[in-house]
C-alpha cells in the first residue's frame, strides 16, 4: 500500500486508494481455503461464545485482515455474541491468509485454546491444508493471486527450527499396497513374527504450538505430518494413539504410560513417532524444555518394558538435531557410485546358558529426519520432507521390503530433494536422513496379510 506524503490528507493520494481497493477485491476473489472455512463453521458456536474481541480486532487490523470500517461495524453490534458472529461472517471473505492471521491473533491474545480447537478440527478434515505461516517460505506458499508486502522478509531462524522450504503442492491421499500370500509364505519364517491383530500399538506425539520462554515457532505443516502418520500406521494394521501439544513432563509421563500398556503383551511390535522442534539428542515439549531421546529409548528397553522383549520397536524422529543448514556441494564429473559391499558375520561360539539373557537394549530401529548437528526441512503445505518420504516409501514398498531397506529408500529420496527459496541463502539447501538399528532379524510389516 502506498505511503502518504507527510502532511498530506488521506483523501489525496488517489493512486494509493485505488491500490488498496484492488487489494481488497483481490482478497475477495482469492477467498479462504474450503478446509479453513469448514473448520470455522464446525466451531462457530464455541467461537461465538468465547471470543474476546477487544485486542483481537487490533491484531487483525494490523495484519490487514479487517479495515477500520469493518472494526467499527463489528463494534457497533450489541453484545459480545453478536460482535463475534459478525467477525465470523467476515473472516471467510478476507482472503487466503485470513485463517492463518486469525490463528496467530488468537495466540497473541492468550486465546490459544481456541486456536488448538480450530487446528484439531482442521487436522481431522480430509485433504487437510494447514494454515500458512508468515515465518516460512512466504513468496512460495501464497496463492498466485495474493501479493505479499515486499518488506516482509523470509525469516528462517536456524536455532532448533525445522525449515519450511520448496514450492510443491499439498498432501496426497495415502494407500498401502497389500502383501501377497506368496511373499508372506516365502519370508515370514526368517523375519520377526508380525501376525497379531492389531500388529501393535503406535504412538504419534506431535508438538505444533509452543508456549514456553524459548519462543519456538509454530510448526506450520506439522498437522499434515501427524495426520499422515496416523493414517499410515492405521493402514499398516496398528492401533494408533495421537497426542498433541504436550509439555516435556507430560511427554515423559505419557510415553511411560504407553510403554506400560498391557496390550503390548499380546501384540507383535510397537511404533513411536515424535514430531517437534529439537536439538541433538532431544526434542522440545511445548513449554520449551527438552526431553532426552535416550530417556525415551530407555522406557522401551528390555529392562523397563518386558512386554516388548524380543519384539521390534520402531521410532521415527522428525525434529532438528542442531542449527547447521546443509548447503550441499556440487557433484563432480563422473558416474554415480554406490559402493555397498555386503558383509555377514556370525558368532558360532555362543555358549548355551541356563536362562537366556538379553542385552538391555535390542530389537529397535530409529529413523531420524536429519544428521547430527543439522536442521530438518518442512513444507508448510505438504509437511516435513522426512515424513512425506517415509509415508510414500512405506505405502509403496511395505508389501515387499523390510523396514531397514525402506529407510534406505527414504534416505535416497531425501538425498535427491533440495530447498526452493530463490533470493535467500537457503535456496538449494539439502537434508540427509539416517537411521540406526539393533534389529536382529528382517522386519517385514506384511500389510494386509493374513487377510481379514
Automatic annotation (TrEMBL):
Positions of the CARD domain: 32-121
BP GO annotations: apoptotic process; positive regulation of apoptotic process; proteolysis
Domain Caspase family p20: 198-324
Reaction(s) this enzyme catalyzes, per UniProt: Strict requirement for an Asp residue at P1, with 316-Asp being essential for proteolytic activity and has a preferred cleavage sequence of Val-Asp-Val-Ala-Asp-|-
Pfam families (UniProt xref): CARD, Peptidase_C14
Molecular function terms from GO: cysteine-type endopeptidase activity
Catalytic residues in the record: 277, 320
InterPro entries, A to Z: CARD, Caspase-like_dom_sf, Caspase_cys_AS, Caspase_his_AS, DEATH-like_dom_sf, Pept_C14, Pept_C14_caspase, Pept_C14_p10
EC numbers on record: 3.4.22.55
Chain intervals with Basic and acidic residues compositional bias: 326-346
Region (Disordered): 326-351
CDD domains: CASc
The keyword Iron-sulfur is annotated on this UniProt entry: no
Limits of the Caspase family p10 domain: 354-447
Keywords, comma-separated and alphabetical: Apoptosis, Hydrolase, Protease, Thiol protease, Zymogen
Matches recorded under SMART domains: CARD, CASc
Subunit structure: Heterotetramer that consists of two anti-parallel arranged heterodimers, each one formed by a p18 subunit and a p12 subunit. Forms a complex named the PIDDosome with PIDD1 and CRADD. Interacts with NOL3 (via CARD domain); inhibits CASP2 activity in a phosphorylation-dependent manner.
Similarity annotation: Belongs to the peptidase C14A family.
UniProt name for this protein: Caspase-2
Organism: Molossus molossus (Pallas' mastiff bat)
Amino acid at each position: 500500500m502506498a505511503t502518504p506524503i507527510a502532511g498530506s490528507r488521506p483523501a489525496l493520494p488517489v493512486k494509493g486508494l485505488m491500490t488498496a481497493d484492488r487489494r481488497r477485491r483481490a482478497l475477495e476473489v482469492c477467498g479462504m481455503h474450503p478446509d479453513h472455512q469448514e473448520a470455522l463453521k464446525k466451531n462457530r458456536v464455541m467461537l461465538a461464545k468465547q471470543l474476546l474481541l477487544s485486542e483481537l480486532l487490533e491484531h487483525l487490523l494490523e495484519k490487514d485482515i479487517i479495515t477500520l470500517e469493518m472494526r467499527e461495524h463489528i463494534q457497533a453490534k450489541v453484545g459480545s455474541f453478536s460482535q463475534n458472529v459478525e467477525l465470523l461472517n467476515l473472516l471467510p471473505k478476507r482472503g487466503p491468509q485470513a485463517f492463518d492471521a486469525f490463528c496467530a491473533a488468537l495466540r497473541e491474545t492468550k486465546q490459544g485454546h481456541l486456536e488448538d480447537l480450530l487446528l484439531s478440527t482442521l487436522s481431522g478434515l480430509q485433504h487437510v491444508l494447514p494454515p500458512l505461516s508468515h515465518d516460512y517460505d512466504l513468496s512460495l506458499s501464497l496463492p498466485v493471486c495474493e501479493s505479499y508486502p515486499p518488506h516482509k522478509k523470509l525469516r528462517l531462524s536456524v536455532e532448533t527450527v525445522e525449515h519450511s522450504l520448496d514450492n510443491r503442492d499439498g498432501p496426497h491421499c495415502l494407500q498401502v499396497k497389500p502383501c501377497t500370500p506368496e511373499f508372506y509364505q516365502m519370508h515370514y519364517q526368517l523375519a520377526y513374527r508380525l501376525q497379531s491383530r492389531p500388529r501393535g500399538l503406535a504412538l504419534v506425539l506431535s508438538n505444533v504450538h509452543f508456549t514456553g520462554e524459548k519462543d519456538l515457532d509454530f510448526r506450520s505443516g506439522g498437522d499434515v505430518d501427524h495426520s499422515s502418520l496416523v493414517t499410515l500406521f492405521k493402514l499398516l494394521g496398528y492401533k494408533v494413539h495421537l497426542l498433541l501439544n504436550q509439555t516435556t513432563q507430560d511427554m515423559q509421563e505419557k510415553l511411560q504410560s504407553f510403554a506400560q500398556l498391557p496390550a503390548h503383551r499380546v501384540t507383535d511390535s510397537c511404533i513411536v513417532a515424535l514430531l517437534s522442534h529439537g536439538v541433538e539428542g532431544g526434542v522440545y515439549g511445548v513449554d520449551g524444555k527438552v526431553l532426552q531421546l535416550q530417556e525415551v529409548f530407555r522406557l522401551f528397553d528390555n529392562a523397563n518394558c518386558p512386554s516388548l522383549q524380543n519384539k521390534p520397536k520402531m521410532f521415527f524422529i522428525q525434529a532438528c538435531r542442531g542449527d547447521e543448514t546443509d548447503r550441499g556441494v556440487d557433484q563432480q564429473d563422473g558416474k554415480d557410485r554406490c559402493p555397498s559391499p555386503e558383509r555377514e558375520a556370525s558368532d558360532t561360539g555362543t555358549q548355551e546358558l541356563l536362562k537366556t539373557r538379553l542385552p538391555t537394549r535390542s530389537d529397535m530401529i530409529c529413523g531420524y529426519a536429519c544428521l547430527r548437528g543439522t536442521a530438518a526441512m518442512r513444507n508448510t503445505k505438504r509437511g516435513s520432507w522426512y515424513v512425506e518420504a517415509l509415508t510414500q516409501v512405506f505405502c509403496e514398498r511395505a508389501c515387499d521390503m523390510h523396514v531397514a531397506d525402506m529407510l534406505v529408500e527414504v534416505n535416497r529420496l531425501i538425498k535427491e530433494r533440495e530447498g526452493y527459496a530463490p533470493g535467500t541463502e537457503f535456496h538449494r539447501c539439502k537434508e540427509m536422513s539416517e537411521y540406526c538399528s539393533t534389529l536382529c532379524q528382517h522386519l517385514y510389516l506384511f500389510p494386509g496379510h493374513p487377510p481379514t
